[in-house]
Amino acid sequence: MAEIVEIMDFAADDVEIFFNVGPDRFFCAPDIPLGLMQKISGLKNLQDVVEKEGMEPLLLVFDELLTPQSATLFRQCIEVKKTIGLRRIMRILPWIMEKYGLRPTQPSSLSSSGLDDGETGTSSMAGASPLGLPMSPASELQTPSA
Fold this sequence. Notes:
Layout: E1 18-21, E2 24-27, H1 36-41, H2 46-53, H3 56-65, H4 68-79, H5 86-99
Helix pairs in contact: 3-4
């Protein structure tokens, strides 16, 4: 008798990731392209990168994170429309990374004492942000409705 083998469909968990900036909607690639995390890790302090190298390193990251049509629109919003600037990018990039599952959506649970009084136990993620990027409150970064 033949053995039944379970098949895992890894495409089944794909979720469309998109965000709005004003009237413009931007769609992310279905997954993070290989090698992109290395580029992102080089952008630990976005403001320093922009001051030293300009916006191009950030634009190259978004060229890979977004679908081609959205990447073109993103560049237009930065360079022509002037509706996206560094402050907005500093909110968008961590939000996208969170949607790809690359950082916790909330701080980890409190230490075993269960108290968050600053003395007997704090969240293991207190004050942490991925890639050294400043975080915005989750209420400001709601997923747009379709």
